[in-house]
Structures are given as structure tokens and as C-alpha cells.
Amino acid sequence: MSIEKMISEHPQVGDNYNASLGMAVKHAMYCSAICNSCADACLAEAMDMDQCIRTCLDCSDVCAATSRIATRRTGSNRELIRAQLAVCIKACEICEAECAKHDHAHCRRCAQMCRECADDCRRALEDLDREVHEAA
């Protein structure tokens, strides 16, 4: 199953499929799940992981919202998609920095996923801006 394929099959997308936005959607979904899992693993650690848990849960929620908003293709809300991608980048940067402070495998994996998600959201944001300039 492929979210990219699902988006491209939308009647109002077709040949106008934005591959970078599709990748950002996919990684935001993965990042949401990984951050949620990392938060749960942090709960099981013997040390105080409150801040890491909080940033992971916040990032998970932002990534989930980003994937949901960016998946919708009926009509257009480019301004909101742009804003949500920017918020997702920030949430991922914060979570990556927090997880990088901890020497746990789950935190390293979460930090890596946050980095990848933020990079994909940046590319999608750049492509959306490029589309606007080319259409003008």
C-alpha cells in the first residue's frame, strides 16, 4: 500500500502530483508513530525522561496533523499546508535535539526519523513555493 499512490489517484491531482509533498506526508506518518513509540520507551527508562516524553508526544501530534492536512487534495489550502509544514519542521528539530541528548537506541532512532521528516518537509515547502512562483 502506498500513500503516494493514493494521493496521485485523487481525481483533482493526477499529473499534478507533488512528489516531495507525498514524501513529506509519508515521513510525517512514520515520524508520528516513531515519536509515539519513543515516548512510550522513555516511560520505561529508569532515569527522568519527562522532557523527552513531552517533546516526542508533541512532535507525534504535529506530524500526525501534518500528514492529515497535506493528504487532503480536494480544493486547495496551500497557505495552511505551508504553515503546517513549517510547524512540523520546528517540532522535528526540537524533538531531534532532545532525543540526541540521550544514549538510548530508541532515542537515536527517533532523532534520525525527526531529521529525515524535517528534511522532507523543507523540500516540500521549497517545491510549494516554487510552484507558486512558476504559476505567477
TrEMBL record:
CDD domains: DUF326 (cd08026). InterPro entries: Csp_YhjQ, YHJQ-like. It holds the Pfam family Csp. This is Ferredoxin.
